[in-house]
UniProtKB/TrEMBL annotation:
Keywords: Hydrolase. SUPFAM superfamilies: HAD-like (SSF56784). One of its GO terms (cellular component) is cytosol. One of its GO terms (molecular function) is phosphatase activity. Gene3D superfamilies: 3.30.1240.10, HAD superfamily/HAD-like (3.40.50.1000). It comes from Actinotignum schaalii FB123-CNA-2. This is Cof-like hydrolase. It comes from the Bacteria.
């Protein structure tokens, strides 16, 4: 069970020795309006300057996330599409450096089952690609996901013909009532499906998730998992938060995340991550 972290007191030793900080985006870094504040951007840049690797791990599409690094003027790894896309260096990726990114798209069989499931249950579907969102038609799912992805408007396309490399994640949109109706079928058909707070049901290749991507990135950085801290708020953050050396949750987190976290900070809408990053940076600066 998480204990409240008093940022006015001396920081626990395990927070002073972290070499990497992995952060969920929605509900953690971003405020409730889906945007990351200037104060949080400045705090990330400050902590990065002390030698801590910053790793944003999100369900968003890549272009809706990389702006965080650009605003902070930092380089580093980025995990997008719930782990289906892992970028070792956002600057290398921007310059087209070979091997800067790895992908784990859904295979043909899984993708066909998703399309069939949506037809059977009359669900709207948005597909996350490497650099774009794709949808068969406009609708509520498109509006919700565009808002969540920094205004990135899905490209209207024939999803049946979408190339495999752009089938990174499926987002099925279901109201609460629809979700209860399809819940049993969903669990049987897609055991790794996770429902996010905005009503979307996310499915990726069973070969990946945020933890698989994060573990690979940490190996590339040469950072031990034990010296990695992570901050997340939702049930889909549980697999990777259970693995990192220090798990931290904002106060708006679901109960299951609080149960496995070491520390609890303030809410995402209060820029609690910024306050924590500044406090860790201050302590590291004092000892440098």
């Amino acid at each position: 069970m998480a204990i409240h972290l008093d940022l006015e007191a001396e920081l626990p030793a395990d927070l002073l020795t972290v070499d990497a900080l992995a952060l969920d985006l929605d509900g953690t870094l971003a405020r409730n309006d889906k945007h990351v504040s200037d104060a949080t951007i400045a705090a990330l840049a400050r902590l990065h300057a002390t030698g801590v690797a910053i790793i944003v791990a999100t369900g968003r599409v890549y272009p809706a996330t990389v702006g965080i690094y650009e605003r902070a003027n930092i380089d580093g790894p980025l995990i997008a599409a719930s782990g289906a896309m892992a970028v070792a260096s956002v600057r290398d990726y921007a310059h087209g450096v070979a091997g800067a990114a790895s992908y784990e798209p859904m295979d043909d069989a899984l993708y066909a089952r998703i399309l069939d499931f949506c037809r059977k249950h009359n669900l709207q579907l948005v597909i996350f690609g490497r650099d774009h969102l794709f949808a068969k038609e406009d609708g509520e799912a498109v509006r919700v996901l565009a808002e969540r992805n920094e205004g990135e408007q899905p490209i209207v396309a024939d999803l049946e013909e979408l190339p495999r490399e752009d089938r990174l994640k499926a987002a099925l949109f279901a109201s609460d009532a629809e979700y209860e109706r399809i819940r049993a079928d969903l669990a049987a058909e897609f055991p790794n499906a996770a429902r996010s707070y905005d009503g979307t049901i996310e499915v990726t290749s069973p070969a990946t998730d945020k933890w698989v991507a994060l573990r690979t990135i940490l190996e590339g950085l040469g950072v031990p998992v034990a010296r990695t801290a992570g901050i997340g708020d939702s049930a889909n953050d549980l697999p990777w938060l259970r693995e990192v050396g220090v798990a931290i949750c904002p106060s708006n987190s679901v109960a299951a995340v609080k149960d496995i976290s070491a520390y609890e900070i303030g809410s995402n809408d209060e820029d609690a991550v910024a306050a924590l990053c500044n406090r860790i940076a201050e302590a590291r600066e004092a000892h440098s």
